[in-house]
Amino acid sequence: MIAFDNISASYDGVHQAVEDVTFTVDKPAIVGIIGPNGAGKSTFIKSALHLIDGGGSTTVDGKPLQKRKKEVAYVEQKSDIDYTFPITVGECVSLGLYPEKQFFQRITKEDWQKVDHALALVKMEEFKDRQIGELSGGQFQRILIARTFVQDATFIFLDEPFVGIDATSEQIIMELLSGFKKEGKAIFIVHHDLSKVERYFDELVILNKKLIAKGPTDETFTKANLQEAFGDTIFVGGGQVND
Ligand SMILES: Nc1ncnc2c1ncn2[C@@H]1O[C@H](COP(=O)(O)OP(=O)(O)OP(=O)(O)O)[C@@H](O)[C@H]1O
Fold first, then answer.
1. 47 C-alpha vs ligand 1 centroid, how far in Å?
2. Atom of ligand 1 at shortest distance to CA of 12?
3. Residue 72 near residue 60 (C-beta atoms within 8 A)
4. How many Å lie between the centroid of ligand 1 and the Cα of residue 135?
5. How far apart are CA 119 and CA 139, in angstroms?
6. Cα separation of 53 and 111, whole Å?
7. Cβ-Cβ contacts under 8 Å for 77 (sequence gap 6 or more)
8. What pairs with residue 85 in β-bridges?
9. Which of 7, 47, 98, 167 is a plausible cystine mate for 54, CB 3.0–4.6 Å?
């Protein structure tokens, strides 16, 4: 279980971007994190994972996150990533091995097999020796998922993984994540396409600075909760919103 206790964050010390968000998630699960632009979804993850300063604490199976870092993987928003960094696809995926390796340890043959296996899972094995800068957005996203796979993390956080990627990549990634769930992992996905919410997520976290709702999707994906988070203008194209 992962428990977030009073997670808060402020960038200027005056305005709260995230305020006292508390909830727990039992694995396995695929959890959607939704809310309007600027609601603090990314900030919540960064503060909860101690990537930025903030208040509150996160525990993994009762232990402070600092002691269980290897079990947590995070893929930041694409806009935060430097694609021009000169490394190959294989090297990029192998970075997932580093939480368990000291920097002076060599990557072994067995490690490279893990990398190859992960690349095969995301259907990117032919791209192993390409530079990451040569990939499409969807291909790159698949590489980042492969990196979390070699890390073998139990809790995986993905910030808007489907932005600007093609339907095939989205489907490949969702199938892979369902497989991760079957292995007992919990996957958190910041997502903005509300029409896919019911199909993709077992549980939902609805945020707008504060926690508006958290629970099984069929209980939380309601008009009342969405109006509270997004205001009255919310429109869910093709999706079913419960009363
Ligand atoms: N590095 C930063 N410095 C200052 N303010 C920031 C920074 N990052 C985010 N903010 C502000 O914090 C608030 C929450 O932003 P955040 O990016 O967490 O929202 P979000 O829900 O992920 O938004 P989106 O859906 O648009 O990605 C916003 O008001 C944003 O302008």
1. 12
2. 4
3. yes
4. 27
5. 11
6. 33
7. 42, 159, 160, 163, 190
8. none
9. 47
Report the alpha-carbon angle 105-107-112, nearest 5: 165
Does ligand 1 come within 6 angstroms of the Cβ of 37? yes
Q: How far is the CA of 219 from the centre of ligand 1 (A)?
A: 27
**Is the complex ipTM more than 0.85?**
yes
Ligand 1, atom nearest to 46 Cα: 18
In three-state secondary structure terms, 87 is coil
pLDDT digits (tens, 9 = 90+) for 30-46: 999 999 999 999 999 99
Residues, the chain:
243
Residue with CA at minimum distance from ligand 1 atom 3: 11
Quote the pTM value: 0.90
CB atoms within 10 A of CB 5: 15
Q: Under CATH, which number does the domain 2-235 receive?
A: 3.40.50.300
Q: Which amino acid is at 111?
A: D
The CA 17 to ligand 1 mean position distance, Å, reads 7
How remote is the CA of residue 121 from the centroid of ligand 1, in Å? 33
Q: What is the pLDDT of residues 117-167, one digit of tens each?
A: 999 988 899 999 999 989 888 888 889 889 888 888 899 999 998 887 888
With the most atoms of ligand 1 within 8 angstroms of its CB, the residue from 15, 19, 34, 41 to mutate is 41
List beta partners, residue 204: 32, 215
